[in-house]
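Schema walkthrough. Field components (list of strings):
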Amino acid sequence: MIWEVFRQEKEGEYHTHCGNVHAPDREMAKQFAAIQHGRRKPTNNMWVVPKEEVGEVDGEKYSFGGTTDKSYRWATGYNVTADDASEVVESSDEQEDAERRRSEVA
Amino acid sequence: MPAFDSPASLDDEQAEALEALLLELADDEYVQAERYTEWQVRAPTLESDLALANNAQDELGHARLWYDVLEDLGHEEHELIYEREPDEWRHSTLTERPFDDGDWADVILRHYLYDVAEELRLEALEESSYAKIADRVGKIQNEEAYHREHAENWMERLADDDESSERLQDAVDRLFPHALTLFEAGSADLEETIVEAGFRDASLAELREEWLSIVVPYLDELGLETPVSEIIQYDDYDLEVTDDTLPEVRGRDGTHTEAWEELHAEFTNTYRELERSEATKIMAKPE
Amino acid sequence: MDLDTVKERAGPREFSPADDLPEEYRKAATRMIEFHANSEIMGAYLERPFIREAPSIDRKLAFSAKVQDEIGHGQLLYRAAESLGVKTREEMLDDLANGDGKFLNCFHYPMEKWPETAMIAFFVDGAAMRRQATLRRTSWEPYAHAMDKVCFEEGFHVKHGESILAELMNGSKKEQEMTQEAFETWWPRIIQFFGPTDEQSTHHGFASQVGLKQKSNDELRTAFLNQYIPKAEKYGLEIPDEPRIRENDEGNYEVVEDDLDWDEFFTIAKNEYEPGVGQINGRKEAQEAVEWVRETIEGGPVPSGNQPPQAAD
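Field assembly_structure (string):
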């Protein structure tokens, strides 16, 4: 049985997928994962998940975020400044970045 | 090459037919979306709330594309949506029907019946002779694939339980006749021109036959009876739609159920109250 | 872990479900995140009618997307709260329905006209964002992660609100008057968004000590006023005479607290303010009406993989 492994490097960070292990049950999967994926890279925490339980949505079949114009969902779609509120600027910047990366994928 | 790349290349009758076709497309999407939005903050779970809201935005986005094509024919959004009288709207009565509180079976069934029809209709528009229509179909189809899967997933889940299956059956009894109005023509002459000019390459009768051949067996498999199942031969869906099968009002000809006036008054309320004469655009004009 | 260790270690994103945390921490964090999640839901409840009322397709799309985001924020936040092991999402949503769940003061008031939407979407959301940005450094890691996503989306909300306000204040005289009127109605409530000064706040001390809260009510309110008073004035809104707001020696705005109606505020905090009670019950009816669907799907999504799920640890 295959288990997908997600590693969190430091406290407070996200768990990101880092690989998998073959193991007959969850306990052994945890032990194997700790060695295989946690022995060198800094690791604070780890999740193991049965591969069969992972559902997949593929960008080839499903257009994430749609295909028609959805710029009304983006801060960048509005021509007001907000430049005196730092947290709004930060959010707009993050959105701009995400929008750019989305169009790079498409 | 599409035959018509601008409104200037159309004769008067063709222009009128194109306008009729676009109004049906746009109004269907718009009103369907209006009703979907009623489920925002009212859906069974947070996740299903998000999903239906997305459908609403997709359909509204499609309506926006079709209304924009109508601008070629000299129309503007404020006049089309906020200044048109209720009896000038051309959507199918399926889309305008109100919901009873909590009637999730109704919205799911409507979602299913509508999106199967939508899929067929879009296929028939892929090769439209009016260039702008053909150009926009692809983007819309991409979003519709998810809609049909979503609707079917819920249909199957609800049909699998006694109580919810009964609610689905009630919804079928109520909505099926209204769904048939999706395939009614506002005017027989214009419908003929729509097909002759190649704006749409299948007739409404053909679309209806195809639609019946999909939805009737599907509902049947889920243990749901359609009001027309007795008069339909399984290998021949050429249903003769008599006045008995259709509701008294047809939508396409401007006649609507009472619920429509109320809905219309609600969505035009702010525009009227603020005495606006323009509809605000946030997004750039579609290409 | 004992409480002293918690206070000692309390830094940004310090604690996760992997930590064995004392009940006091878990309960305080649950109360705070549940309040936040409930506020998203009740805010969405208040704004939903304006999806329909929006005076253009683009505005309608934006409103639908905003309400959708808020439900999405609720989804993220209830999960962050649930992960503390004190209450399930279902329990929190039930409590919200039966009047035990608490939420922001602003969402207890009715909203009837379009110009009011700018008050929520620009000022209240602006205030919320000010607070949320600081919560990315809260000590409960799942809460901080939820805040990452919420802050990412919220920038659109505030700009959408500002765009509505700008349009109204550049519109007809009637629109400008309606907007000024809405502003006068909402302004004191918006200032009360941040609650009473810290000395009067019941939960502030503990939440700060354990790192759940990063900024005090006073600091947040001052920062908000410093930014949003000039913005309101820029759009031509007149700041009402009451509550009196003074500029202190450091150039910061300060509110005369006694000019605000704190009886009303605390009635609201107990979920006893009349329009708010109606809104709670309205949402409850909607939730009950679809109870049958939840029962239908409760049989549970069957995992589609071949392997039976393992017993939990």
